[in-house]
Design brief:
There is one protein chain. The protein is built from 15 helices and 25 strands. With 508 residues, it is α/β, with parallel strands linked by helices. The chain folds into 2 domains: 315 residues, Metallo-dependent phosphatases (Purple Acid Phosphatase, chain A, domain 2, 4-Layer Sandwich), CATH 3.60.21.10; 171 residues, 5'-Nucleotidase, C-terminal domain (5'-nucleotidase,  domain 2), CATH 3.90.780.10. The N terminus is likely disordered.
Length: 508
C-alpha cells in the first residue's frame, strides 16, 4: 500500500452492548458514543483514470437486533444513515459485509431461526457474510435454509469437513467469493472463530474442523488471486487482539482489509498496511473504509477509515416495513403476558440466575442441583408485563435440560466454574451445602444435577460433564419451559407483582 493520505479515526468510547458474545461468556461494553479525531496528510496527487474508489461498510454480531437496542437505532435507521452519511446505494461503489453472528438474539429473530434477519439483510444489500459461531445455533438444516434464502454468500475458508478436508458448500458455506465493485475484482474471504466448538452447541459442529486463520489464508489467498481477484478483503468472526496478531503474520499476502467480530468491539485501525475493522454489535454502529485503488497496478494508493454510531438516520421505508411485519408476526405468537414485575431482572444478575436454576428444580423436584452457563442469558427481563417474547429474548437458544448423576467431588469441580449459575446449593465457610437440607456435600455421595445440553456437549468448557456421566439423560424439556411455567404459577399482576417471589428465590 502507498498511502498519500490517511484519515485516522480514534475511538474514545465504544457502543454499549449486551451480547455474550459470541461466546457464552460475559462481554460488557461502555455506552459512550465514539468521537473522531482527524490527522490530515498531503492531498492525493493527480492520478488519472486508473484510480477507482470503493467503500466498505462493515457490521458484525447483528444478533437479530433488527429493531435496534433503542429507538432510532434500528436496521432501518442504519440504512437511512448510510444513504445520507455515505451516499450508499446497493449497486454503487460499495461493498457491504458482515462479520457474522447474524441471527441469535431477541424473539423477532430467534423464534424464526433467523429467517427474518435474512430478509432484512437482503433488503439492506449485503454482499457477503462471514460465518459466526452462532450461525450453528439452530442446527445445520436451519443454517442451510438461511443460506438458501440469503441473497449474499456465507463465507468461511477455515471450516472443513473432518472426513475429507473440504468446505461444507452443501450447507451454503463457501471459502470465498469475488465481487466486482467499480471495475475492481474484489476477492472476499471469510473466517470463523476457532472457538466455535465451545461457543455453539458442540453437537451441531461435530463434523467440522476449524483451521488456524493463517493456515487457511495461506491456502486460499493464492486461489482467489488465480481466479482473478485484484483486491483481497477478509471479513472474519475474530476478536481484535487475534486480528492484530493475524495482520502481523500475513502481511506478505497483500490483504487490504481484515474485518472482525465475536467480541462485539467497535474500532478501526491499521497494522502492517492492513486496515482492521469491527462494527460493534446489534446495528448500533458500523465501521467503514474508503479505498482509492489503482486498477493498472492492482494496489491501494490511499484509504480513509473509521467508525460511526447508528444515530440520526431516517428509517429506510422498505427495511422498516419488513421489520414491522416480522414484529407483528412475533407479537402474534409470543406477545402473551405471563406475569408482571415492577423492577425486572438485569441480565446475568443473581436474580436472573436464581430464576432459571431454581425454576428448573421446581419443575424437576427429584433433582438436587441445577447449573447453567451465564452466557446463555442474553438480555434483561424488563419491568412491566412479562411476555413469552421476553423469556425467549433472555434465553434464545434451543437448549434442553439434561439430568446427570455426579459425585460430590465431581459436583464441586463443576460448581467452581466462573461462568456457572447454580441453584439448589449455597456456599458457607468455603463449603457447598444443599439448600433443601443444609447438609454439606459429601465427596463420595451421588447427586442428581440438571444442566443444559449445550454444556453437556462440552460448550463453555464443560467437557468434563460427559466424562463424569457419559449416560446423561436428555429430559427433552426445553430449558425455557420451567421458567415460563414458574412465572405463570406466581399469578402476578400490577396489583400483585412477582418481585417478592424473585427475591425469595435468591434467599433475600
Amino acid at each position: 500500500m502507498k498511502p498519500y493520505k490517511r484519515l485516522i479515526l480514534v475511538m474514545m468510547g465504544v457502543i454499549g452492548l449486551v451480547v455474550i458474545g459470541c461466546r457464552q461468556t460475559a462481554v460488557s461494553t461502555p455506552t459512550t458514543t465514539p468521537t473522531e479525531e482527524t490527522v490530515a496528510e498531503p492531498a492525493l496527487e493527480e492520478t488519472g483514470d486508473a484510480i477507482r474508489e470503493i467503500t466498505i461498510l462493515y457490521t458484525n454480531d447483528e444478533h437479530g437486533r433488527m429493531a435496534g437496542l433503542q429507538a432510532g437505532a434500528s436496521a432501518a435507521n442504519l440504512m437511512g444513515l448510510w444513504r445520507t452519511a455515505e451516499a450508499y446505494q446497493p449497486d454503487g461503489n460499495f461493498l457491504l459485509l458482515s462479520g457474522g453472528d447474524m441471527w441469535t438474539g431477541p424473539a423477532i429473530s430467534t423464534w424464526f431461526q433467523g429467517q427474518s434477519m435474512a430478509e432484512v439483510m437482503n433488503a439492506m444489500g449485503y454482499d457477503a457474510a462471514a460465518v459466526g459461531n452462532h450461525e450453528f445455533d439452530f442446527g445445520l438444516e436451519a443454517l442451510q435454509a438461511r443460506a438458501a434464502e440469503s441473497d449474499f454468500p456465507f463465507l468461511s475458508a477455515n471450516i472443513r469437513y473432518k472426513s475429507d478436508g473440504t468446505t461444507p458448500e452443501d450447507l451454503g458455506i463457501r471459502p470465498y467469493t469475488i465481487v466486482t465493485v467499480n471495475d475492481i475484482q474484489v476477492g472476499v474471504i471469510g473466517l470463523t472463530t476457532t472457538q466455535t466448538p465451545t461457543t455453539t452447541n458442540p453437537v451441531n459442529i461435530t463434523e467440522f474442523d476449524f483451521l488456524a486463520y493463517e493456515t487457511a489464508l495461506r491456502e486460499v489467498v493464492p486461489q482467489v488471486r488465480e481466479t482473478g481477484a485484484e483486491m483481497i478483503v477478509v471479513p472474519g468472526h475474530i476478536c481484535q487482539t487475534s486480528l492484530e496478531i493475524l495482520a502481523q503474520n500475513v502481511s506478505d499476502l497483500g490483504i487490504a482489509l481484515l474485518g472482525g467480530g465475536h467480541c462485539n468491539e467497535l474500532f478501526a485501525s491499521e497494522v502492517n498496511d492492513i486496515v482492521l475493522l469491527e462494527g460493534g454489535t446489534a446495528f448500533a454502529g458500523y465501521a467503514y473504509a474508503t479505498f482509492q485503488f489503482d486498477i493498472e497496478n492492482d494496489e491501494v494508493v490511499s484509504v480513509d477509515y473509521g467508525v460511526r454510531s447508528n444515530s440520526g438516520g431516517a428509517a429506510d421505508p422498505e427495511v422498516e416495513a419488513i421489520v414491522m411485519r416480522w414484529q407483528e408476526e412475533a407479537d402474534a405468537e409470543l406477545n402473551r403476558t405471563i406475569g408482571y414485575s415492577e423492577g425486572g431482572l438485569l441480565r446475568r444478575s443473581q436474580g436472573m440466575q436464581s430464576l432459571i436454576t431454581e425454576a428448573w428444580l421446581w419443575a424437576y423436584p427429584t433433582a438436587d442441583v441445577a447449573i447453567t452457563n451465564l452466557g446463555g442469558m442474553r438480555a434483561d427481563l424488563p419491568p412491566g408485563d412479562i411476555t413469552l417474547a421476553d423469556v425467549v429474548g433472555v434465553m434464545p437458544f434451543e437448549n434442553v435440560i439434561v439430568e446427570l448423576l455426579l459425585t460430590g467431588e465431581q459436583l464441586e469441580v463443576m460448581l467452581g466454574q466462573d461462568s456457572a449459575a447454580v441453584g439448589g446449593v449455597y456456599r458457607e465457610s468455603f463449603r457447598w451445602h444443599l439448600k433443601a437440607t443444609g447438609e454439606e456435600l459429601d465427596p463420595d455421595a451421588f447427586y442428581t444435577v440438571l444442566v443444559n445440553d449445550f454444556m453437556y456437549a462440552g460448550g463453555d468448557d464443560y467437557a468434563l460433564l460427559s466424562v463424569y456421566d457419559p449416560d446423561g439423560y436428555n429430559t427433552a424439556i426445553n430449558w425455557r419451559q420451567p421458567v415460563i411455567d414458574w412465572i405463570m404459577a406466581q399469578a402476578s399482576s400490577p396489583d400483585a407483582p412477582i418481585d417478592d417471589a424473585f427475591a425469595a428465590l435468591v434467599g433475600e
